[in-house]
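Query structure, 129 tokens:
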């Protein structure tokens, strides 16, 4: 799918605290596979905006798919593809260590590539790591 394009209305198993990969998978072409997805926060200056962030594989190549959503993302119609960030040679992801980092806290990462310079806050847990 192209960024901003309408998505098919397939159901997923996602709920308030569950993995979001079902919602992402429902938006993908048949040869694409969502390996993991979480609901995170994009940090833009003083603004925080919720996003569904998925790691997608196609033909042994990977990309980060970022989706906006207006409500709890349960079905594909709840999300809209905003950005695709290919994981290529110029792709860098690094953890941003906060001054008051506590065990069990969310993880802040910075993604940098040719076209992207983005800070994301990902929920604590194995899907984020």
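Result returned for the query:
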């Amino acid at each position: 799918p192209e960024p901003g394009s309408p998505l098919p209305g397939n159901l997923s198993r996602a709920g308030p605290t569950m993995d979001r990969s079902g919602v992402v998978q429902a938006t993908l072409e048949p040869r694409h596979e969502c390996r993991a997805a979480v609901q995170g926060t994009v940090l833009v200056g003083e603004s925080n905006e919720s996003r569904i962030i998925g790691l997608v594989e196609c033909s042994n190549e990977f990309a980060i798919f970022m989706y906006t959503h207006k409500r709890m993302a349960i079905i594909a119609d709840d999300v809209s593809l905003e950005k695709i960030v290919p994981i290529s040679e110029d792709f860098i992801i690094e953890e941003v260590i906060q001054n008051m980092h506590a065990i069990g806290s969310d993880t802040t990462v910075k993604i940098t590539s040719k076209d992207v310079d983005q800070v994301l806050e990902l929920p604590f847990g194995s899907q984020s790591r």
